[in-house]
Amino acid sequence: MPEGLDRLVPGNMVRHFADGKYNRMERSLTIEECRQGIDRIDGEILDLLNERARLASTIGKAKQAANQPVFVPEREQAVLDGLNARNSGPLSSKAVGAIFRAIITEIRSMEIAEREEG
């Protein structure tokens, strides 16, 4: 079962098939249960984004000290390629790319601002 799904689904009512899908449930979740799960996940996503930003800030400082550029297109493409390879849906590769390009762009903006301040 995907990590965290057991916290969302009461009574562990998900069937996990050999192909990695978890698409059959013994009962449907209520709208409120789904919203509670989404709210919890959103908080976890925010925490992880802030952790990602702190790590990127550390990398940015090291790159600045080594006189390396903020933007490294090959690295960003490798990140996107790795995420798309890992993606098992239901998000499309296009959606994953759009979401992570936005994350990368915002964190790069933060890194540029830190260089200008420092």
For the structure shown, list the relevant keywords.
118 residues; mainly alpha; Chorismate Mutase Domain, subunit A; two-stranded antiparallel sheet; 4 helices; 66% helix; 3% strand
Treating each run of at least 4 consecutive H or I residues as one helix, how many helices? 4
Sheet with the most strands, sense and barrel status: 2 strands, antiparallel
Q: State the end-to-end distance.
A: 45 Å
Beta-strand percentage range: under 5%
Number of strands: 2
CATH homology superfamily: Chorismate mutase
Strands across the major sheet, in which order? 1-2
* Structural shape: elongated
Query: Average pLDDT across residues?
Result: 84
**What string gives the helices and strands in order?**
HEEHHH
**Structural class, judged by helices and strands?**
mainly alpha
**What fold name stands as the CATH topology?**
Chorismate Mutase Domain, subunit A
What top-tier CATH class fits best? Mainly Alpha
- Oligomeric state as shown: single chain
Question: Please, could you describe this protein's structure?
Answer:
It is a single chain. The protein has 118 residues and is mostly helical. The chain has a single domain (5-117), classed as Up-down Bundle (Chorismate Mutase Domain, subunit A). Helix content is 66%, strand content 3%. The protein is built from 4 helices and 2 strands, in the order αββααα. The chain has helices spanning 5-8, 31-65, 73-86, 93-117; strands at 14-15, 24-25. It has a two-stranded antiparallel sheet with strand order 1-2. Strand 1 and strand 2 (24-25) form a beta hairpin. The longest helix has 35 residues, at 31-65. The chain is elongated. The termini are far apart. 3% of the residues are buried.
